[in-house]
Every structure is written in C-alpha cells, then in structure tokens.
Amino acid sequence: MPDTTYRVLISTDLGGDPDDIQSLYRLIHYSDILRVEGITSCVGPGSEPRAELIREWIQRVDVEHLRGRGYPELMTEAELLGCVRQGATTPGAPSAERATEGSRLIVERARAADPAGLDRTLWVLVWGSLTDVAQALHDAPDIAGRIRIHYISSSNTEADPASRDWVYAFMAERYPALWWIEHGALPTWSHETF
What we know:
By secondary structure, this protein is α/β, with parallel strands linked by helices. Helix content is 37%, strand content 18%. Helix 1 (19-29) links the parallel strand 1 and strand 2 (34-41). It is globular and about 50 Å long.
C-alpha cells in the first residue's frame, strides 16, 4: 500500500488568538496523515512568540489518550514535543545575524531525506508571519525547490511586512518556481480566502 502521508512543518504565532490553538488540535488529530517534522514559534499579530506555549498546548491535547483508544498511528506526545523550536521573537527582514532555532529547523528538515524514502516535498504551513521562512530561505536558498509554502497572510503580513516582501522579492528575482500559496492579500479583509 502506498504511503499517503505528507511531511509538514508548522510556523505558528500560537497565543495571540484561539485560531492557531484550534489548528494545532486538528493537526495532532491528523498526525497519522500529516507527519509533523517541526513546529516553530513565530512572530504574529498580538502574540509573544513562545515555544513553551506550543508545548503546553500539545500536552493539553492528550494525544496518548487518543493513541490508547484505538489510534496508535498518531504521532506520540514525545515526538510532537521534540520537534518544537523557538523562532524569531521580533519581526524584520532576514540577515546574517537573525537565524533562530526555528529557521535552522526549516533548513534542516527541507534538506533532510524523506523519512519514508519517497522523496516527498516538505510543506511549510505558516500560521503567523513569514519571519522564519524568510530567514531559512536567506540562509539556505537551495531549499526553495524542496518546500511548498502555504501562508495565511493578511494580518500576519501586517505584523512583519519586511519578511513577506523579502520572500516575494526572492521569488520574483531569484527563484520564480518557489511554490507558495498566500491567503489574504492586503489591505486586511479586502481579499480574504480563509
């Protein structure tokens, strides 16, 4: 039977409002299909990026209860906790001095061999600002062909327009084949698609 899972890495501003908590809850419940290779805490509107808060919510989901009730294929709590990293705590365009644990994890997982040996692309789901994704592309432009970005824009762009502009310029000038879905163009609420 073919492997029907997807490699995913989440960059989240969890903590500003409840939407990312709800998304994390669903992500864990689908971790048999969406194999999480990383969760980074990033800048976003109204939140203070804290990896510890992500870990707290992972524990609240109590995935071990679900695994014990007939869903053993879900990722373990230890696996999920082990892939959480702190990303940027301030907005801003990437530079040589701005690498974070989160941006380094994006590079590491994008360059890593597919754990299932299938050469699947790494989906980078951005639920906050593009700060760490921009930094990862800045530090390792070779990963551009190994990732697919799905970005919830709008207010997240307003929280860090410099990073969004940097990624756009990178795509326009250096790597036009960058695979990037962006939901919610500016001005806010004018073209929302989520």
